[in-house]
Amino acid sequence: MSGSDGLRRWLEKRQPAWEKLARALRTQRDNRRQDVVEVHRLDEGYRALARDLALARSIDPKGRLTRYLEALYVEAHEAVHKPARRLLPSTLTLVRRDLPAAMGALRPTVLSVAAWFLLSALFGWLLVMVYPDLAALFASQQMIEGVQDGELWTDGLLNIIPPSMLALSIMTNNILVALTAYALGALFGLGTLYIIGLNGMMLGSVFAFVRHYGLDDRLFEFVIAHGPVELSVICVAGAAGVRLGEALLRPGNLSRTAALRHAVGQTTPVMCFCVLFLVAAGLIEGYVSPSPNIALGTKVAVGVASWVVFYAVMSGRAWPAARYREHKNQSAFS
Amino acid sequence: MQERIQYPSDNHIQLRGGDEAGVDLEIAGLGSRSYAYIADLHIRVLFVLVWIFIWTFVFFGGSSMFAVSPWVTILPPVLFYFLYHPVLEIISSGRTPGKRLAGIRVVAADGRPASVGAHLLRNVFRLIDSLPTAYLVGFTISLFHRHALRLGDMAAGTVLIKERRAKAADLADATTALNHSSLAPEQQAVVADLLERWTQLRAEHRSRLAETLLQRLQQPLPEPTGNARLRDHALRRQLERLLKGELA
Known about the structure:
The complex is a heterodimer.
Chain A lengths: L1 H29 L5 H24 L4 H18 L5 H44 L10 H8 L8 H4 L2 H21 L6 H23 L3 H8 L3 H23 L6 H32 L8 H20 L19
Helix pairs in contact in A: 1-2, 1-3, 2-3, 4-8, 4-10, 4-11, 7-8, 7-10, 7-11, 8-10, 10-11, 10-12, 11-12
Chain B lengths: L11 E4 L7 E4 L3 H31 L9 H4 L1 H17 L5 H6 L1 E5 L7 H9 L1 H4 L6 H9 L6 H6 L1 E5 L5 H13 L4 H12 L6 H14 L11 H17 L4
Antiparallel strand pairs in B: 1-2, 3-4
Helix pairs in contact in B: 1-3, 3-5, 10-12, 11-12
């Protein structure tokens, strides 16, 4: 068989190259710091392998050699195409370019969701003002009895739970609520609107309920330090969720799946920062809000300052836009 | 991200690099997915339990439960439990210990490593996929999806594929056969196929197949023996020698 003589010579010549490439891939997995020559060699090996694979396929499309070379090709492809890990530059791009852009696109939705939230709060407020008994829908029996005795459930909070524990549990809860409100947008936005509406009604009705017993100024004192950021984050997360639902309802020229993926890509940076701000709000709610030693003025100042920071970061106003040179960095989220 | 993603067939996606021919990657089914998830769940829960045990012993040792800050007692297991999937997937391109065990990994729909954002997203959507309990939503959706995707994968544009590893022994086997065997490559492939499945076949079937194959290839059959097991063993040996070119 003269054909197989050629095959043997080819194998003899190429086999060491494949073994070398396999070894290079293994060391590359173990140690990512490599000099340019090594990386260049890896890339060359990958290209040569693609040609060898085509040849092996023409000899025996489903043979063992073809299958081995295919597996090696997949490994080399991953090593060559793995995105570079540049944490700092891509984070900067995310904060300064992608986040403000995403928030700009989301602005009308945020305003609508905030309006929906306020409307629900107003509804809850009116509901409990007119029918005070309905407070039982939103508050536990224990809370109601406490308020009837003239005590707010937030009063002795720090005597029962240490602030760190309080902050942790609030943080976890808020992050879960925000992420769920976002992800439930995939149910054509209905899940999001339900969660936002429910939270709005709770806020309104609880305020109406404590007002009935003349405790509303104390509840305000508890809420003012962390409330502004927390409620804003809930509205922004809700807006991101509504955007997902909108993509499914009105996909435009894209398929529904493609539209959903596009909306998801747009809203991911926003959600990452929502989570970060909920961590901050949780810390405030654990350490500042329930503390009887901190004056009302300080709490108001904390609330205003934290909201200003939130607004400045989310809208990109915190960074001078003109001085930021557009990097060639691809953001982590594109 | 906006263009429609093309899948060449129901259980494969194609990995393309430049203008060269693509390689098929097999999509992992519901079984491998669940296996990987359950394995990962064990690791996560085990970590949390060990952490709780350690602190329980400390507290029973006499110190008050609030003497140690919850930032030490509660935060680490919470972070471990919730960040396990996204962080591990991001730092090892779509792999977690459970997925390694099941031999699968997460890639973008074109077979390339998925972006950081995609990994974060497919894990945030676990919140819906795990509703109402025990991943009922995700399980049902992937049961009916032709690529066995759950919602999180659809949103993030990711797919789970079966891992392909290039093993040095495979190359050695293949080249020995191509170099030394008197058979044509496609004949070698048939013999290799039979040997690969040898242990999965019942003894009488594989012996009959081996005999037929050897006769068709006009190769000598092993010496007849009275014992069926010895015969089976001899036939396997004969096929192996045929591949290595040790037969005339």
